[in-house]
């Protein structure tokens, strides 16, 4: 929790709030916490536990499609590994959103892959598509034994922060995404480009 650096200025969306252990810690630091949980039994637990905590709102919903704030916000999430990719796409495919930072517990391999993109090629399609607006950092490793039930692999904290300024204007995000998809389909050496090289190639073709 301390690594996330949440402050009294932050609006935090907690995806997968569970029984509220992390929710309580966030409530002590953040201006506002929106605790999203799918399981109705756990939602009832959260609602009772935080009924008198003025800066916590509890919402029953699926992290993959729950309503997110229009104003600037952060995300903290400890999600089932099976929905990680879907949630990442939900959060990062739309750089015009209010998301400013996300601290996500993900599989170790996913954290390593995302972090690697920031250090040059090889760059996968998602790394190329997200790179102009988001920076990735791999946080601490979390051994499988830290979790109950125990998953088959270790986890890590993946920290995603918004670039300021972005490498490509947000207004051009759809055009850029289409460009990346087209290049990966048609260019054999697409993975050999770093994010800055992708951006420069896009700028050349957009002139």
Strand content: 15-25%
Helix content: 25-40%
How do the strands of the widest beta sheet line up side by side? Answer: 3-2-1-4-5-7-6
How would you sum up the major sheet? 7 strands, mixed
In round numbers, the mean pLDDT is 94
From the alpha-carbon coordinates, what is the Rg to the nearest angstrom?
18 Å
Give an overview in words.
There is one protein chain. This protein has helices at residues 21-27, 40-49, 84-92, 108-117, 125-130, 173-186, 195-206; strands at residues 11-15, 32-37, 56-60, 73-78, 99-107, 134-142, 155-162. Strands 3-2-1-4-5-7-6 form a 7-stranded mixed sheet, with helices on both faces. It is globular. Helices cover 33% and strands 23% of the residues. With 207 residues, the protein is an alpha/beta fold. The chain contains 7 helices and 7 strands, in the order E-H-E-H-E-E-H-E-H-H-E-E-H-H.
Question: What is this structure, in a nutshell?
Answer:
With 207 residues, the chain is an alpha/beta fold.
Kindly list the characteristics that best describe this protein.
207 residues, alpha/beta, seven-stranded mixed beta sheet
Present the secondary structure layout:
Elements: E1 11-15, H1 21-27, E2 32-37, H2 40-49, E3 56-60, E4 73-78, H3 84-92, E5 99-107, H4 108-117, H5 125-130, E6 134-142, E7 155-162, H6 173-186, H7 195-206
